Amino acid sequence: MLRNSEAEPEVTEPIVLRHRVLPEFDRLTVYRQHGGYQAFERAVRSRSPEAVIQLVKDSGLRGRGGAGFPTGVKWSFLTPGVFPRYVVANADESEPGTFKDREIIERNPFQFLEGVAICAHAAQANVAYVYCRGEFWDLTSELDRKIAELEGAGLLGDGLFGTDYSLRIYTHLGAGAYICGEETALLESLEGKLGQPRLRPPFPAAEGLYGKPTVVNNVETLANLPLILERGVDWYRSVGTKQSPGTKVFSLSGHVKRPANVELPLGTTFRELIFEHGGGILGDKKIKAILPAGASAPILPAADDVLDSGMDYESVAALGSALGSASIIVLDETVNIAWAEAKITDFFEHESCGKCTPCREGTYWMKHILGRLMTGAARAEDIELLHSVGTGIRGKCLCALGDFAALAVTSGIERFGTDFKVHAVNGQ
Amino acid sequence: MAALAEKYRAEIQSILAKYPPEHKRSAVMPLLFVAQREYGHLDRQAIAEVAALLQLEPTEVGSLIGFYTLFHDRPGPTYRLQVCTDLPCALRGAEEFARELRQELNVSQGEPDTDGQIAVEEVKCLAACDRAPVFQLQEPGGIHYYENQTLETALAVVEELRGRAGSD
Amino acid sequence: MSTDGVRLTIEGREISSSPGTLLVDAAKRIGIDIPVFCYHPKLKPVGMCRMCLVEIGRPARDRATGQPVRNERGEPVIQFGANLETACTTQVGEGWQVRVFSGKAVDGRRAIVEYLLTSHPLDCPICDKGGECPLQNLTMEHGPGLSRFLFDEKLHLAKRLPLGELIYLDRERCIQCARCTRFQDEVAGDPVIGLSQRGRRLEIVTFSDPGFDSYFSGNSTDICPVGALTTADFRFGARPWELNAAASICPHCPVGCNLTLNTRRAAGTDGRETIKRVMPRQNERVNEIWICDKGRFAHHYAHSADRLSKPLVRQDGRLVEASWEEALERAADRLGEAGAGLLGLAGGRLTNEDLFNFRGFVEGLGGMPVLDDWMAGGDLVRQFGVYPGTNLGTLGKGDAILVIASDLHEEAPIWWLRIKQAAERGAELVVANARPTRLDSFSTHLLRYAPGDAVQAGLGLLGARTGDAKLQSSGPDRQTAAAGKALGSARNVIVLYGNEGLDYRGSEALARVCAQLLSANDHQGRPNNGLIAVWPRANTQGAWDMGLRPSAAGLSGRIEQSAAAYIVAADPVGDDPAIGQLLTGLRGLVVQDLFLSATAQLAEVVLPAQSFVEREGTFTSGERRVQRLYPALPEPPESRPDWKIIAELGGRLGLELEGRGAGQVFTRIAGQIADYAGLTYADLAATERQWPEVGGLDLYYGGTAYDNRQGLGVQLAPRPGGELPEWTATAAREPSGDLLLVPISRLYDRGVTVLASQLLGRRLAELKLAIHPEDARRLGLLGASRAEISWDGQGTTVELSIEETTPRGAGLVPRSTGLPLRQPIEVRVRPSSS
Ligand SMILES: Cc1cc2nc3c(=O)[nH]c(=O)nc-3n(C[C@H](O)[C@H](O)[C@H](O)COP(=O)(O)O)c2cc1C
Ligand code: SF4
Ligand code: FES
Fold this sequence. Notes:
The complex is a heterotrimer of chains A (428), B (168) and C (834).
Chain A: H1 28-33, H2 38-46, H3 49-59, H4 71-75, E1 86-91, H5 100-107, H6 109-123, E2 127-132, H7 137-152, E3 168-173, H8 183-190, E4 214-218, H9 219-223, H10 225-237, E5 247-254, E6 260-265, H11 270-277, E7 287-295, E8 300-301, H12 304-307, H13 313-318, E9 327-332, H14 337-351, H15 357-374, H16 380-393, H17 400-415, H18 417-421
Parallel strand pairs in A: 1-2, 1-4, 2-3, 5-9
Antiparallel strand pairs in A: 5-6, 7-8, 7-9
Helix pairs in contact in A: 2-6, 2-10, 3-6, 3-10, 5-6, 14-15, 14-17, 15-16, 15-17, 16-17
Chain B: H1 3-7, H2 9-16, H3 28-39, H4 44-54, H5 58-67, E1 79-84, H6 87-90, H7 94-105, E2 118-123, E3 135-139, E4 142-146, H8 151-167
Parallel strand pairs in B: 1-2
Antiparallel strand pairs in B: 1-3, 3-4
Helix pairs in contact in B: 3-4, 4-5
Chain C: E1 6-10, E2 13-17, H1 23-29, E3 53-59, E4 78-80, E5 85-86, E6 97-99, H2 103-118, H3 134-142, E7 161-162, E8 167-169, H4 179-187, E9 194-196, E10 203-205, H5 217-223, E11 229-231, E12 244-249, E13 258-265, E14 273-280, H6 293-297, E15 312-315, E16 318-321, H7 324-338, E17 342-346, H8 352-364, E18 368-371, H9 378-384, E19 399-404, H10 408-411, H11 413-424, E20 428-433, E21 445-448, H12 454-466, H13 478-489, E22 492-497, H14 504-520, E23 530-533, H15 540-545, H16 555-560, E24 564-568, H17 572-575, H18 577-584, E25 588-593, E26 605-608, E27 617-620, E28 625-629, H19 642-652, H20 662-672, H21 681-684, E29 714-715, E30 739-744, H22 752-755, E31 769-771, H23 773-778, E32 786-791, E33 794-802, E34 810-814, E35 825-831
Parallel strand pairs in C: 1-6, 17-18, 17-24, 19-20, 19-22, 20-21, 22-23, 24-25, 25-26, 30-34, 31-33
Antiparallel strand pairs in C: 1-2, 3-4, 3-5, 3-6, 7-8, 8-11, 9-10, 12-13, 13-14, 15-16, 15-26, 27-28, 28-29, 30-35, 31-34, 32-33, 32-35
Helix pairs in contact in C: 2-3, 4-5, 7-19, 8-19, 8-20, 12-13, 12-14
């Protein structure tokens, strides 16, 4: 950890939430006054795509959409020599507890769009799509206006900066389906089909949109790019941990006094996020559990070793969970974990795309068992059954959603077994 | 038959312009939104129009409707107040909020009110968990967020909507 | 075992597979059945049902050096992944070890079966798939003994949801494997059913009108791995294990799809044996495992109550029932008298044996045997037909196909399907027609010509190929030049020609041009090269082979010169009422048919024949494959097969024709017809192992199509030699009337063989005159709903349909929908006053 002062809750300097410190940052003139679009212009004029990819590799930037895959490495997998290529910004943000991409697009749109443009240059793509979840209707209309503004200013369009590079960015609205955040389901949806995940491999970098090499990156990932290019690898690596460099926007929600997005160096502790930035637990109750990645990772008991653990990809994995999109949902002592898992299972059952058997049938089955449990109609043996149904799903699905659904339930039973037992007719 | 094609010619053109001509199919969801704005819901007629615009089989268009929650295949309320009651919001009282709102409006979950104009539905996470309770208002022409809601603010929205509906 | 393949072990057995082989197929080849649901060897793998989970171990590699890691004994170290993997999506890898029956793999699959069963109704005893259901079998094999899912939490869904009139969906039984929707999209090119909703609510839907609107819909029920999709025809018709099965050949078009006819005694028919369903029988060179819906559903005519059941003779002007003795006596008298004045007219739905005897009979009496047809070129097909070993299913990159003057989707659906797939695999596809057809969108070169000018289009291609100055007065247009180039540079070329818009002479000229085109680049004498005629009947090619020819000058003149006529399996009066006048002028008319056709009604003697389901014999397909059909039902008591009736008639007139059995007739054919020399019935019944395997005990792998134990047939070699006839430069058509009235083919016409299948009622073609809006304006037909057409003193009124896609100058009318019209004619058109 490269942060010096424990007592100081302020981050040295935000990278993607710069609008928090720079007023009217969503205006193009203001954004440009602070150096906006210089990184893109310089890249187009004088940095080869290969050089940009190398630089992003060196920066150690990892995907912020959940999987944490190194961004530059992903770009380097684009099939050589095959064109056209596409860039797709993943703004489907639908993970329960995640609301960071929305803030970035709303308040810091130009930095995000510059990130898209830099990525497109690196990928040698002339068209980029921003896939927004359908609910972001107003946000998307606003983003369309911003894109038009950029075209008007000559920062998007044909023959950019006197070169022969041209770039168009288009928004595309989804229509209500969490699974479309999964990158291959997103591509299917963008092609006008049901949003069901594709078989991988081939990965999008080999065969993505319309079968062409495609980069799919999360909004936050892309919003990091302008400053990485402007200020360089060393600067970027000076925050965060060695393996998880940079800052992360943590979406903090649930039983905290101040739910909000907080941008902090990767590796910051749960304790600092929850108790300093979040102001502690609502009603000063005791903290019971943490969901570190929205609904999509095993639940963690809020014991001291957890609270004092850093929030970076490696440390959270070491705790037996995952950082994912870093949506930290805090549950206080009043929450019955079986209830929370029932809600989560409801979510996954509702969102399972239905393509593969274990997820389609397993989430449906788990929902029914949990439903019985919640209405007091289940027996203690049903808890074992529930655990075994969850275990049966694991490692067998076509995409990660099924595992997410299963892990929520199995980790809940394993770590908070009594919360389940109290609901069973023959419990205790 | 070609009502959409006539009425929204320019908009349809600008939607189609986003995608490579050989991949017109990409425009199907944007066009379904246009159709839903026009007709309120997506019936066989609307599906046929969109299919014709994109030279798709009606089945390729119609099968999408059930997959995506923001499309509606039958006539419903003009205004849908979609309250997020997913876990993060539920932790901050969204379920009670939704229940009270329904009580106040005397409707049950998902059912429209007596005028058939307004319904209160519960939906999954809307990416606004820091501002619970929150609902989005889905109307044929768009979707708008209402955050940090109380019963009073929500009822004021309903009043305003009823006024709008009445003045049509 | 080849040495250049990928070497791996599956369940400890070492194998070598060609690169790219999927694990599931590699295992299948050595007899290891990995269970599958969504995977089907004819469809792209999707890996969605997760049934085929196996454990895969791969040779470990040193991260730094990339070299394989070896243990102390020098053997490569194998690393097994943490998760099970789908064998249906994973291609074989060098040095892998695959475990199919390890505890982990079996447990994994058991979990999948259990999940599938959570919402599956356990109604096997009443399910159509019961007894041939993979889920049932897998449950026995892999599933847990006891359901842990609470019965009352099962999802209850529609059990009898019509997707259209032909196919029903049981939503409870559907396991969402998407085989049906993928078949329709990938193979049939008709994405008219799709998945909608999501999660456990995922369901099959259709928004087409009529529902599930595809000529190939029935195949979805064969590959559905459970009883979710059933045909309206067979639904609850019988349990699969109670059925008898007989091999047959589809009688509807020249593709010659191999069929299995399933029969059973049925309650409603006094315990008579009836056809319960028609299923595809695998022949990878002909129809793979598919058939079209006409082949599947249009079999009811065989059971029609209107079938002739007894011989009829004319007494006091009326046809009355008679004994065979009496009828044959009368027929022999009449036909014998005519001698050289005998006209024999036979149709192309007869078998080779019928036609062989027929020719022997008519010629034996000194008469003239004529094939009842209006398309030419059968002799050229004998000379330039596709070479043995031809398989449309293997055409792809580097090959080229020309389809000219034919709407294959309507005329020969399975050829359409296989050619479409060849184009998708990269074959160059040149489609030349006067109007748009369903094949256009798969073509690489699309040529349009004016109605009636197919020969000119063909000559253009020939000119582009040969650079022949006589053909190149103005030089080919760009598209023609490009198409000619594609045909010229291809490794293999197959030409399919039809006769749309052409009269007999025109189709003869087109056949010649096509033969020239093939010989210009020596596309003959090798598999996957040659000429195919898209004949209107299943055995037209056989008729040519047996020595019958159509009457180039038309029938009328022939009849006028004749004293008596013997008409078998043809209805010239139905096709042209004017013929009726002529026939009644004859001294003798003997008609042999299944139904009392318009022609039969004029006859002096009517002899009841047998339909293809009651008899044996051989058909020769458009690809010149000779194939056997076997009897599926007992002979109706008073009917006889055509070859036999003919032989008996011959016997009465002192002709020695083979009348003992169809097989014996075939032996004679093999002795007398050079093309068939040396062929035996047994050769035709020979089979070989085909891939993919269907109909095995696994059931799920290839679907319920039947494997082929009764014969793959023999493809005849073309007989080169003989002069290649010169092409004839016919002048482009000079319009002389208002419109060229062109009969076009529609799959579901209103002929007797289709009408009897009421299921197809909603889909039958309607009698309508289609014309282009410009022509409608020119002829003052805008706003009119009916039009009067007239020619040669004849005339009629038809419904009018104004369609942009109709070529200018032409009026299109579907064949066999009521307007008797065999060849294109110039007509005058007026708005109808009525
Ligand atoms: C079920 C599921 C839902 C996902 N939802 C999102 C999402 O809403 N937004 C997002 O950026 N990534 C989401 N992802 C991750 C994407 O598949 C993908 O990894 C990501 O967009 C890549 O961008 P990154 O490398 O910048 O993180 C989801 C993944 C899964 C399996
Ligand atoms: S895991 Fe669930 S969401 Fe993912 S493919 Fe399978 S059914 Fe669809
Ligand atoms: S996943 Fe392999 S058969 Fe379905």
